[in-house]
């Protein structure tokens, strides 16, 4: 009999194949919680996260899945290659090209990984500044945040105070209120109470 984690993972796989990626993500996360030692749900989760464009989270889940597989001594070469390829592609999408070369060994036997490494090397050679792009982007963001004012400035430079209001007197009383046995009115920030007096006058007139 399949465990709860495996059942949830298989349900996630069905949803994944149907293109219901966000529902699949939920099932994979639930499966991972049901068995925190199983790398399979995290591997599937990383695939769904990649397909939905959550590349940073994809990388995180790939690394977690790899760690669990190594800890259990259940490293399957085919599964390990799948995870590594997914991580490399996610890093490329994140524009973290130097990390791609760090993730792929110089003597990598997998053909797809070798192709990806060669493509990244060519990109870095043709545009040396590309390796710095992520660093420059972060520095610019940090500068923007640093230069932003910590508090919103006051729009009015001079304080204004009016001990007598200058808005038109209004009554809160409506004819339908007279049909009620009790009616309550709220006057917040009442000032010179002109609206309160206006309401009293309308009640008296009615």
UniProtKB/TrEMBL annotation:
This is Uncharacterized protein. TPR repeats lie at residues 5-38. It comes from the Eukaryota. It comes from Aureobasidium pullulans (Black yeast). The keyword Transcription does not apply. InterPro entries: TPR-like_helical_dom_sf (IPR011990), TPR_rpt (IPR019734). Pfam families: TPR_11. SUPFAM superfamilies: TPR-like. Keywords: TPR repeat. The lineage of its organism: Eukaryota, Fungi, Dikarya, Ascomycota, Pezizomycotina.
